[in-house]
Structures are given as structure tokens and as C-alpha cells.
Amino acid sequence: MIDIDAIRKRTEEAVRKCFEKSEELVDKIEISSSSEKTDDTEEQINNRQVEILGKVFSADDMAEMAANEELLKKMAEEKAAEASENIMSLFCGEDMGILAAALEMLDEGEEEEEEEPQFSIEMEEDLYATLEETMARIASMPEPEAVPYEDGDGKWNRFGILLSGIVSKLNDHDLSSMDVEEHIPIMEQKIASIVRRSWGINGRSGLLEMIRYLSQEGYIMRYQIYAEASSPEELMDETMAEEECEATMRAWRFAQRYKELYSPVFMAGWDTGRAAMLARWGCYLGWITENEASGILWDLSQSVAQKLGSWREFAQSYLFGGLMWKLLCGDSSAESYIGYIANAATDLLIGNAEKDGGQWKDCPWPEKKRIGFTI
User: Domain limits at 265?
Assistant: First the structure.
């Protein structure tokens, strides 16, 4: 492997010797030149400099310096090309948080911003129609039957990683191992930015607390609270701003519309998928160990396998929870978000001819364990 630092040091040492050895010669030439009134042209000066270098360095020294200079130039060009590719990779995924972070830096100097369309009852109805149509399309996709998993089966490890499948697809992450990306500085900074900006998590304690919340409360509890409230006013108080009250009313209408069709447990895919992704991100950033991340994924796997019955249902849950989240956030990009999730789930379920896909298809859902005695 070429050591660029060693080459640079050899070149600097050669140049230093050049100045030391040539100083005396230059002084002599200047003294003799001052006694003669001549008007040297630029070409003559250049020729004189070459002559000085020729007296200081041997032919081999000159050849080595030229070769080193050419090699350094070539390596600099390669590094520049590599840096350009890495920068472009920041925008390969479909995660809106990453794109928003990049666009925010570009828009800092702009005084005017386009206003997002305001939510309305008509817009909500359109979103409900899009959600139901998309969930029906996911339900019609082929999927292998659930299979029994043994307690010590290595398939549990694979299943746990694939629980992060949708978020991984949205961000163009690797799904073959615990690591989400190659460990290089630019990717580590990218992942840290996602976790900090989108989740407000800055280290180990915040990460573990969020995973605990998602696995024990999350949107399962939130959806239940909104579904059981007889009116949105029950969920409000005098300290809430107008935007918060409007968000509460949107989420309450959502829960009231679907509470007879979907129980709170149906939110398990939305909560579990994000918790699994946080575990992998935390491991990649070094906030938790790989053994800790594996333990978290094991617990998430055991829980969600009992609550849901297939990858299709898991994807539907993610769509369902994702829309409620967008309604609470007041994000008018909800329809596009539903489309991104559906595309990711489709790729995981049936694969893509142009890319690696079908990971869920290759890892069937665990068959639910029977609880109790059989008579």
C-alpha cells in the first residue's frame, strides 16, 4: 500500500536540502551578476535556476522528485473523486429527514419560504383513501407461509435485523449484518445526524430510553388513548398552542375512524420497526455493543412475532402508524411518505430486478407460539 505521508516527507526533505546546498551557489551567482550590468530575460533566469538544481541534485534525485510529484498529483485526484462519490451518496436514500437537512443549509440565506398547504377535512379524507388503497395492495402481495422458529435458531438474528427493513430501505442501508453502513467518517456523521436531528438522541442513555418507550408504550398506547377518548377536548389542556390542538383533533379523528377495524396492537409494526432501526444505528455509532443490540432485537422479535402474523401485516402497520404520525406532525407530505413506505415494503416482499431485494421473502415470518396446554 502506498504511504502518501512517507512520500510527502521524502519530498520535503529533498527540497530542504536543495535550499541549504543551493544558498551558497545562489549568493555567489548574485554577487558576480551584480558586478556586471546585464538584463536577464525570464527564460535566462529559469535556465539559471535549472542549472543550480542540476549542480545540487544528482540525476537520480531529480527523477525521484519528479516521480513523487506525479504520484502525489495522481493520488490527490483519486481522493477528490472518492470524496465526490461519498458526498453524492448522502442523497441516495429516500429519507426525508436527510434531504431536509441538506436543503436547510442551502436555504439559510433565503428570506422567503413557500408556505405548505394547510390540512383540511378534504385532505384528511384523501389521505385515508390513499392509506386504505395502499394497505389493500400490500395485502394482495405474495408471501411465504409463517414457519416455526426454535429458541436457539439463528433465523431469529436475521429476522431481528429485517425488522428495520423499511427504514433501512428508505435510507439505502445494508441489511446483511448489524452494521448499517461501512465504517467511514462521512457515513458515521450521516447516521449521527439522522439520529440527532430526527429523534433528538445524542448518546447511549437517550437511545435506550427511546427504545424502551417504543417497545413498552409507543403508538400502541397513543392510539389507544385517542381511540378511547369521547372527544378531542379530553386530550387537550389550556397550555396547548393552537397548532397542537389542531394536531390532536386530526389524530383523534383518525383513531375514531379506524378503532373498530384495528386494535392498538396493530401499531406494533410501526413501533417495532423504528426501535429495531435505532438499535442498529446505536450499535453502528458505538453507543451500545453488538451484544446489547442483538439482545434488543431478540426481545423485539419475540414480542412482534406474537402480535402480528406476517410481513404484509407488519408493512400495513408501518403505513398505518406512519400516517397517524404525519397527522400529528401536521406534515403535508404524508401522501408521499405513504408512497415511500409502500415502495420499500414492495421491494422487501417481492424484490426488485435492478437491485438487491426480497429480503422478507427469503426470511418467512415466525409462526406464532401456542400458549397453554393442548387437550
Answer: 121-350
